[in-house]
Amino acid sequence: MERLDCVVIGAGVIGLAVARALALAGREVLVLEAAGAIGTGISSRSSEVIHAGIYYPPGSLMARLSVAGRRALTRFCDEHGVAWARPGKLIVTTDAAEAQLLGAIAARAQTNGVEGLRLLSAADVRAEEPELACHGALLSPVTGIIDSAGYMLALRGAAEAAGAFFAFHAPVEGGQVRADGVELSVGGEAPMRLAARLVVNAAGLGAVPLARRIGGLDPALIPPLYLAKGSYFALSGRAPFRRLIYPVPVPGGLGVHLTLDLGGAARFGPDVEWVEAEDYVVDQARGARFATAVRRYWPGLDAAALVPAYAGIRPKIVPQGAPAQDFLPVAVPGLVNLFGIESPGLTASLALADLVRDQAA
Q1: Residue 312 scores a pLDDT above 90
Q2: In the sheet that 49-50 helps form, which strands lie side by side, from edge to edge?
Q3: How far apart are CA 360 and CA 349, in angstroms?
Q4: Distance CA 331, CA 259 (A)
Q5: Which residues, 6 or more positions from 227, have their beta carbon under 8 angstroms from its beta carbon?
Q6: What b/e string do you get for 97-135 counting C-beta neighbours within 10 Å, with b at 16 or more?
Q7: CA nearest neighbour of 72 among 357, 324, 312, 331
Q8: Distance between the two ends of the chain, CA-based, in angstroms?
Q9: How far is Cα 61 from Cα 69, in angstroms, rounded to an integer?
Q10: Which ranges in 273-339 belong to alpha helices (H)?
Q11: Quick one: CA torsion of 232, 235, 239, 241, rounded to 10 degrees?
Q12: Cα 32 versus chain centre, distance
């Protein structure tokens, strides 16, 4: 049996960031990825937004790590030539009842350390975005967008430069916690058994199922898994907006919002659909609901311009209707499980990786 220092399971954005952080700390790191390339799961199906840290409960890991992670992320992008931009976003209200929520959202964001927030009147908004209909808005100038594929390539390069190794087509089938670390059974074309002083389970949607297959881990430490699917529709043609446009949040997500990519193309989503199994098909029929939601803040939308784009699934650890979840890193000697890492996971990735590095130390 081969013995190693550290094994990171999963080469999505979180696994890549963790591998880099551990390697830079001088640890020997092997990344095991079931697929044939990096970032093929949750990480390839995001909105590519660099979140400011507005909505999350003060003191939560989501709040702390998104603010710290955003600052670290933009520095990393500048240092490694990863494309990103800071168009900012408007959280818009479409009626008087919603308008009362903006003050509370702004207060929470300021408690979280979000910089530069401004409450805008409807007239202020129209001066910036003439086609946007609203009662008022909260401007977050530090919200950004990123080339997520470029970011993951840069993370992999940085991890490898620091000495990390990658093995693809290497699904982890199970394991056993021992006194001196964790033994892993790895499948694929070249099955093997490994023993590592430290294992980090960053398997995304597979993190909970994998933890259940690791013997010696208290089942009480493993949360349930719920799947929240989010579909996206693209806009054919150019959107008349310079900023990202968000409605006030809805249970389970942030509502059907408008985001821009670095080329200026617009997409809408995600919505929230609780599902029993992974399913990435975007139902064309959902376009009518998207159009209804979007027309609340953009009445001029032509529904025929909405084109099914892609879907992602969030690894929820709380059921529909429950209070919002937080990131849930569960560390026992020799093993760190990263549960419930959904949005703002990309934004928080570097800060979360530092947290794992420190826990491992």
Answers
A1: yes
A2: 49-50, 144-146, 84-85
A3: 16
A4: 35
A5: 205, 274, 275, 276, 277, 278, 313, 314, 315, 316
A6: ebbeebeebbebbeebbbeebeebebeebeeebeebbbb
A7: 357
A8: 24
A9: 11
A10: 287-295
A11: -10
A12: 20
Q: For 254, what's the count of Cα atoms within 13 Å in the CB-facing half-sphere? A: 26
One-letter amino acid at 187 equals: G
- Phi and psi, residue 107, nearest 5°: -65, -40
DSSP-derived 3-state class of residue 115: coil
Count of beta carbons in the 10 Å neighbourhood of residue 255: 21
Work out the average pLDDT over 119-124. 95
Helical segments of the chain, H only: 13-24, 61-80, 96-112, 122-128, 148-161, 207-212, 287-295, 345-360
pTM of the full structure: 0.96
CA–CA dist 243, 238 (Å, integer): 13
Query: What pLDDT was estimated at residue 252?
Result: 54
What are the tokens at 182? Answer: 């964790």
Encoding tokens for residue 60?
């939560």
260 Cβ neighbours under 8 A, 6+ residues apart: 87, 145, 239, 241, 244, 266
Looking at residue 162, the DSSP 8-state letter turns out to be T
Pairing of strands 192-201, 181-186: antiparallel
Which residue in the block uniquely carries the two structure tokens 């949360």?
Answer: 223
- Assess contact for 199 and 334: CB atoms under 8 A: yes
Using one digit for the tens of pLDDT, what is the confidence trace for 246-305?
998 765 566 789 999 999 999 999 999 999 999 999 999 999 999 999 999 999 999 999
Length of the chain: 361
**Angstrom distance (rounded) from CA 312 to CA 199:** 26
Q: What is the average pLDDT across 234-257? A: 85
Residue 58's pLDDT is: 96
**Short-list 270, 189, 193, 200, CA closest to 12:** 200
* Among 49, 18, 9, 8, residue whose Cα is nearest residue 354: 18
What does pLDDT average to over the chain?
95
